[in-house]
Amino acid sequence: MPRSSRPSLADIRPCLEGAIPAAMATCGVDGTPNVTFISQVFYVDERHVALSFQFFNKTRQNILSNPHATAVVLHPSTAESYRLQLRYLRTETQGAIYEGMKAQLAGIASHSGMTEVFALRGSDIYCVEAIESIESVGSRASMAPPRTSPLSAVRRGGERLSRCTGLADALNATLSTLNEFLGVRYAIVLLLDRQMGRLYTVATCGYVASGVGSEIAIGEGVIGVAARECTPVRIVHMSLAYSYHHAIRTSLLPGSPVPAHEIETIPFPGLVEPHSQMAAPIMSGGVLLGVLFAESPVDARFDYQDEDALVALASHLGTAIDLAQCTADAGEHSVSNASSAALRLNQRPVLKVRHFHANDSIFLDDAYLIKGVAGAIFWKLVRDFRDAGRTEFTNRELRLDPSLGLPDVTDNLEARLLMLQRRLDEHGTDVRVEKTGRGRFRLVVQRPLELLNMAH
């Protein structure tokens, strides 16, 4: 950037990452100046920033009576300083900007050991009227080698997704793009269950256990907040407030008279001690489909460029999911109600399939499998297998079955079937679901089944 040109907010984005506190100067109505340090100068867009409102102090009094302020921010790599001339516009106490700042501030507070002190009351929105570089005395700090732009990774990911012919391919392409081109080792794709108001895991990479079928509530942690506000959320330091393992432990404390089948859960695959996390909503046509999540055991692993890349990749994935859903029924053929494959089974022990009607939980012998819509689908398949010997099914017939509780086509039946298929694969080969064509699949049963419908 030439010295003669004035920098833009885009030029100084690294200064707005919260790595170094900023200084802020205001002036009272009587002309008395006040200078203080602030935790966050948060990038909103090319003309606006948001400053953290945490305390009812002199700075707050001044800005409400005189909207003009000055902030000085430092580049974390070069120590270059920039002066921002600001004009206060409003304070937001909810919404995307507020939630993004709240999550980031929680990480800063946890990292600095000031969790009890740092509490965000609101996001003060300022118009940036001017930016100027401050000439520093002495030599300029050496800058780290510039990182490779993630734009190439996003391009490659988009190309991979454009070649996908189904949901499973699209999920694999997304995770492989994050891993191979962006160096993200741990990532999760979750899709939205609109009826339950929860997100369920459909694909992961990097974890010991896949966690497919595990759930996160809307508003819970980085993932839940990203879904609720339909905005990306990024934390660069560990925060207990956004830890999923902490949330799960506290939600399962003893003393709640809840039946075992209702609290049975698939463990969430997240890191026990993440130090960096980011999540981007998966959208299509302005509708939330799910969340793409990445995390790392390293502090400050993700910067704003990683966040931008994740958002772009999530957008590509949203389009691919919509396309997979719209074309899932194409090419379906009529299916016989009986199959000779169901007439002969190996002489093996009986597999007990227990179904709890309250939440459609399914247990294979004593092992929990799945619940919700995926559980209802599995119960229908095994009942049809028992009663009519059926093994061949179509997506269309499931959509037309009112007993499954699918609200509409946007509920992503393909994702439910994929999640069920992967959960069954993790349980072994006794019962499997295999895709046989577009909009068609097969139930493969290797042991005699005993179906038990449990009222409670």
Defining key terms:
single chain; 456 residues; alpha+beta; seven-stranded antiparallel sheet; six-stranded antiparallel sheet; elongated
Helix proportion: 25-40%
Biggest sheet features: 7 strands, antiparallel
Broad structural category? alpha+beta
User: Residue ranges: pLDDT <50 for 5 or more in a row?
Assistant: 111-115, 246-258, 338-343
Termini separation comes to 68 Å
Radius of gyration: 26 Å
Beta-strand proportion: 25-35%
Tally the helices.
Answer: 11
Shape verdict? elongated
Please specify the SSE layout and strand pairing:
Blueprint: E1 22-27, E2 33-38, E3 41-45, E4 48-53, H1 58-65, E5 68-74, E6 81-92, H2 96-112, E7 122-134, H3 151-162, H4 167-181, E8 186-193, E9 198-205, E10 215-217, H5 221-229, E11 233-235, H6 244-251, H7 260-263, E12 276-284, E13 287-296, H8 304-327, E14 351-356, E15 361-364, E16 367-370, H9 372-388, E17 392-394, H10 395-399, H11 413-427, E18 431-437, E19 440-445, E20 449-454
Helix pairs in contact: 2-5, 3-4, 3-8, 4-8, 9-11
Q: Brief overview, please?
A:
By secondary structure, the protein is an alpha+beta fold. Helix content is about 30%, strand content about 30%.
Question: What does it look like?
Answer:
By secondary structure, this protein is α+β, with helices and mostly antiparallel strands. It is built from eleven helices and 20 strands. The strands form four sheets. The chain has a seven-stranded antiparallel sheet. A six-stranded antiparallel sheet has the order 10-9-8-13-12-11, with helices on both faces. Strand 12 and strand 13 form a beta hairpin. It is elongated, with a radius of gyration of 26 Å. It starts with 21 loop residues before the first strand and ends with a strand. About 5% of the residues have low confidence.
